[in-house]
Specification:
8 helices
């Protein structure tokens, strides 16, 4: 069996620098094309936000000590911010608040539930991240109370799914969870 050659650190850094420079050049070219062709529509900002999002994902994923639950949490927050930005650039019709963010929260909770079930011995590692996602899932309720969304059903479902998911984790690890919260938050 032939294994691929391992890229040394210097070569890896060089590839990263080339990729960053290429991304910046592509972003600049997109802005120039946007200004020359359709200056009234800011599509280059949407494309460039996608480039920034990809770099957030790559940088976070390259980290060798990435906890999968932490990765899910970062992705939840990053993609939510990206969808709000895209919605804003397209004239802010509110779809990011009423549809996108609740769906992202539901998917994140399902991913966390699967992680909890699959690695039942490590459920405590995921509890803090589930708590963070639960706090993040309060956003749809805030959007509903502030009348920022027209259809509150998905927001209510997303918050309910987060609460149920956290309750399942608490039931699995009540004693260990309490000790971890005390240790992590220095209570």
């Amino acid at each position: 069996m032939i294994y691929p050659k391992k890229i040394n650190a210097n070569r890896g850094e060089m590839i990263t620098k080339i990729a960053i420079i290429s991304s910046v050049l592509v972003a600049i070219i997109l802005i120039i094309i946007n200004k020359l062709t359709t200056p009234q529509i800011h599509w280059a900002a949407i494309a460039n936000s996608g480039i920034i999002y990809i770099w957030i994902v790559v940088i976070y994923s390259v980290n060798k000590n990435v906890n999968i639950a932490g990765h899910v949490t970062v992705q939840t927050i990053a993609i939510s911010a990206l969808t709000v930005f895209i919605d804003y650039k397209l004239g802010f019709r509110g779809w990011s608040l009423s549809i996108s963010i609740p769906i992202i929260i539901i998917v994140a909770n399902l991913a966390m539930l699967i992680l909890t079930i699959v690695s039942h011995k490590k459920y405590l590692r995921y509890a803090i991240y589930q708590l963070i996602i639960l706090i993040f899932s309060i956003l749809p309720i805030i959007f509903i109370t502030e009348k920022l969304v027209t259809n509150p059903i998905l927001g209510i479902i997303a918050t309910g799914v987060s609460i149920i998911n956290l309750l399942i984790t608490v039931c699995l690890s009540a004693k260990d969870l309490k000790e971890t919260i005390i240790r992590k938050f220095h209570i």
